[in-house]
Amino acid sequence: MKLSNKEKNIAIFGATGHIAKNLIYYFSKNTEHKLFLFSRNKIKLQNFVSSITADKNIVYDYYENIPSQSFDIIINCIGISNPSDVSKYDYDILTLTERYDEIIIEYLKKNDSCLFLNFSSGVVYGDFSQPANDEFLPDLFLDDFSRDAYSLAKINSENKHRALPFLNIIDIRIFSFFSRFIDLNTSFFISELITFFRDFIHPYDLYHLISLCIKHSESNFVLDAYSTSPISKYDILEEFSNHYDLKYSFKSDLKIEHPTGFKEKYYSLSKKAKNIDYNPIYSSLETILGESHFLIFIL
User: Which listed site, 58, 90, 166, 287, has its alpha carbon 20 to 30 Å from 197?
Assistant: First the structure.
């Protein structure tokens, strides 16, 4: 999907992150646009990029250069990539999120045509006994200090962004994400209960959603990301058992940790993204099976 006939300078912060790698993969296929990639680990970033594409139209940049650059779009992918690490870095999460959020906002104030795409999270809803929907408003109040630092950081960012309606800022709430570029040492799956329901947006559908947001760049709003349908953990295990002869068992005494809170039905029924013509192609099951195929047989 092409963004426009005009070349765009697209900055990606936190370019070695899980979501960022997928955006680099898809955006690099569109040679009309130049990617400015920011990461504290340049060697890791360069090794990844060289494994998926040529370096044409890619600039490895430094955060200190931001004020002097000319960006059409800034995509913020900075964050803690492993859920099991969230509880270890409570204060760091708050300060890290605030620091780079302020850097981008200050840039937007001086470059008001630039669009800021920020990845928020479904955790802002607070209650996951039922899926999120348009009638169930997110818990965007900061006086509940029982919430974990990750949730508070996302809530704080969303509140601040809506308080700046004159800036072009779009928050995309991600509920679950899985791709061939996942770090296999993370605990995205094994730390959850068998009864969970999750919605794994396909990497291409996320790229498509972002492309549509870019077409509505003179905007300030928030929307939920979603696939065509969520899936239960039990169904995921059954599919892998059928396709790959996976053997699994359940332990009733297993200690389960939920660093960002217990989330039984962690997906959204809100379809506000339809307002910008978003219609996902893939289901959660198709996403997991398709991306797993690359992990198992290709990568």
Answer: 90
